[in-house]
Write a sequence for this structure.
């Protein structure tokens, strides 16, 4: 008899449109083959924990605080809705927190998916998304929902206002590199909003430019043609730098990636820290190894990855 259920949900990177999507532009995000794994088993009590063997933090689900609180909120509501009790959930992440890679969404999605598999409850993607959004509201206040949608569905995701859908996309490789600086999403959102108030015409023009690029990028990704994505990424980073979302560390990482031969590079997520992403030439291994020598917390991901998966062991 299986004694555990395991679920793994992908993280995400925003290819185009972060910050601008909040103000009406289009955005493209992609699921990474880095993510969060949750293991669930029946237990005397409701417990959530996170970390590896040498550094595990644990709490009762109903009392969870700090970084355990978002996933615990999703689990608490799920258990209540289905009148369930007696489960221990352990979350193990491959992606750093507060880095713009969707770790909170992937944690809540994987946790609820693992528990639902353990109790043989079939959740629709929409229900799983709704449970994850309880966690996202704790983390982001008024989340766009992109992180949760990507984590549940995987693939290449188009988002604009309340519309989100998965698009066709041929696979490609993408560098993800962590700056080591945690970002404050609320602070960066306020900073960009302040620019919009000071320079409304410039901000509108940047949104128009992003919107004009997105359809061409989508068309290229369907065919496996990447030059337009590279050009759009380079433009998008400059747009984010103009509105104040980048900083010296991220700018330096982007320059170094381009100097190493990556054809497109940009910050991803809220900015002020977090990660950059970069598009390699065909193959990409040579420039990746050279870049990683300077920035060790770097990964060459195969994208787009699948959405959440769960199984019994």
């Amino acid at each position: 008899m299986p004694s555990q259920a395991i679920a793994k949900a992908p993280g995400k990177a925003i290819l185009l449109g972060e910050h601008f999507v909040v103000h009406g532009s289009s955005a493209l995000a992609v699921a990474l083959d880095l993510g969060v794994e949750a293991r669930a088993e029946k237990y005397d009590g409701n417990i959530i924990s996170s970390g590896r063997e040498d550094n595990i933090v644990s709490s009762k689900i109903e009392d969870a605080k700090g970084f355990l609180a978002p996933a615990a909120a999703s689990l608490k509501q799920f258990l209540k809705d289905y009148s369930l009790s007696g489960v221990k959930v352990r979350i193990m992440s491959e992606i750093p927190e507060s880095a713009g890679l969707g770790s909170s969404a992937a944690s809540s999605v994987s946790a609820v998916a693992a528990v639902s598999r353990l109790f043989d409850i079939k959740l629709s993607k929409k229900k799983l998304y709704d449970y994850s959004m309880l966690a996202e509201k704790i983390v982001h206040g008024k989340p766009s929902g992109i992180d949760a949608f990507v984590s549940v569905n995987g693939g290449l995701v188009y988002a604009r206002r309340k519309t989100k859908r998965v698009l066709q996309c041929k696979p490609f490789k993408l560098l993800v590199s962590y700056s080591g600086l945690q970002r404050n999403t609320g602070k960066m959102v306020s900073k960009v909003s302040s620019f919009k108030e000071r320079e409304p015409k410039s901000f509108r023009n940047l949104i128009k430019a992003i919107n004009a690029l997105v359809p061409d990028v989508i068309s290229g990704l369907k065919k496996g043609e990447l030059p337009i994505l590279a050009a759009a990424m380079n433009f998008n980073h400059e747009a984010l730098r103009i509105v104040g979302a980048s900083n010296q560390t991220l700018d330096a990482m982007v320059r170094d990636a381009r100097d190493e031969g990556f054809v497109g590079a940009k910050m991803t997520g809220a900015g002020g820290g977090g990660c950059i992403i970069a598009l390699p030439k065909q193959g990409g291994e040579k420039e990746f190894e050279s870049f990683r020598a300077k920035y060790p917390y770097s990964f060459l991901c195969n994208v787009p990855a699948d959405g959440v998966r769960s199984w019994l062991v």
